[in-house]
Amino acid sequence: MSQYAFPGTSPSHRPHPTGFAGYNYYMDAKARHATAMIEEEKRMARNQQLMDAYGSKESLSDMQQALDAYHAR
Question: Measured between alpha carbons, how far is 25 from 3 in angstroms, rounded to an integer?
């Protein structure tokens, strides 16, 4: 960057090009993290639904409920 681009400012007060790239990377990473967290919550909710539908399978009635839920899908 030319010393004349920002006359009257010291080098420490000039905008640095890597600052913009770093900020953009940070914002993109933040958005990706938020999206990943939403997807993870959906996945966990779906897994819980499946666990609730299929039960513990410790008895014959649990197995019958699991088969009924499977066939209903």
Answer: 27
Alpha-carbon distances of 54 from 19, 44, 63, rounded to whole Å: 52, 15, 8
pLDDT in tens, the chain (73 residues): 555 555 555 655 556 666 788 888 899 999 999 999 999 999 999 888 888 777 666 778 877 877 787 787 6
The CA distance from 23 to 31, in Å, is 12
Place of tokens 């839920």: 69
Instruction: Give every CB contact of residue 53 below 8 A, 6+ residues apart in sequence.
Output: 65, 66, 69
